[in-house]
Design goal:
This protein has 369 residues and is α/β, with parallel strands linked by helices. Helix content is 41%, strand content 20%. Helix 2 runs parallel beside helix 3 and helix 6 packs parallel to helix 8. The chain is globular. The longest helix is centred in the N-terminal third of the chain and has 17 residues. It binds iron/sulfur cluster. The site of iron/sulfur cluster has 11 residues, from loops.
Amino acid sequence: MNGVYIHIPFCKSKCPYCDFYSYRYNDEQREKYVDAIIDEITTNRRASEFLKKPFSADTLYLGGGTPSVLTGEQLYKIIDTAKKEYHLPPDAEITVECNPGSDIESLIPYFKKAGVNRISLGMQSAVTKERQQLGRSADKERIRKVINLLEENGINNISLDIMLGVPSQTNESLEESLQFAVGCRVKHISAYILKIEEGTFFHKNINRYTFPDENTVCDFYYHCSEFLETNGYSHYEISNFALPGFESRHNTKYWKLTNYLGIGAAAHSYIDGKRFYFESDSEKFINGTEAVFDGNGGDYEEYIMLRLRLKEGFPLSELSRIYGEKHVKKIIKKAPLFKEQGFVNFDGENISLTDKGFLLSNNIIAELI
Ligand code: SF4
């Protein structure tokens, strides 16, 4: 079944590491943008070239930016319209990314009314000093309060983000973040390694910060994986951990090359082997810009690249069925050496990356394809 992603590009301020399409907004622009989103959901006018049939989905994901800077009415309108237009079933996974510093209290009644059942909270670190350096305001007590409030209102599927490699991070401070996340009994944890992207504040001011070195970050990653696995979280994707049954259904569609429709500025889509996107410009989106074709997707390289992000990897029989036997032969030739070096699990039929392989995934995947 398909997924739908809706991009909300608004934030209260810009975090120093962020290279997503997001910016400070004003109320008028926010209103117009929401109207443009609703219009596109209702008509699929701009994506119609790629959507040849009525589109149904079983996951809806509002990401950003910060969707929780929308008003409750705006969020409800978007979700309710998408539910109707994309025929979401009663058990659809509906996720909203939230900043714990937002006025979540005022949004909860609308979340309940709209059937939101999953919240992804941008925590990044439970350590106040680290959070401040990352431009995040809410403290640990606020995050815990938001989690409790959501749970009291029946939204139990909560994900927390943790960032590895942030300025001044130590084994002890990482341990504090991990203990906090596990202590909150959240169902899902995303642990990302910080990448200093060009154009960000961190990139421009790199000498003002002390970042942990590469080996230390690798140790953080191993520790994070071991700690969370010991506490019952499965390391089901390079950067994602979940209690049994709480893997992100929506994000798994990206890694399994399942169709998804992206709506809003900077949103990308993959439908029946074709990729298209909307430009990173909300004014253009408001003014009716067309979707841009981004070429064909889903070739065997992409399949291997995406499937190896998942702990389960993929069976060679599936690769052969979809893309032909010649690619299987290449893998059979190279996999045993990577297995010997501890980078892959390979039993002759299924191939997947180990934790060590996850850290070097780009190199291993490049070798395999
Ligand atoms: S809240 Fe998220 S999207 Fe907004 S600036 Fe920070 S990292 Fe970027």
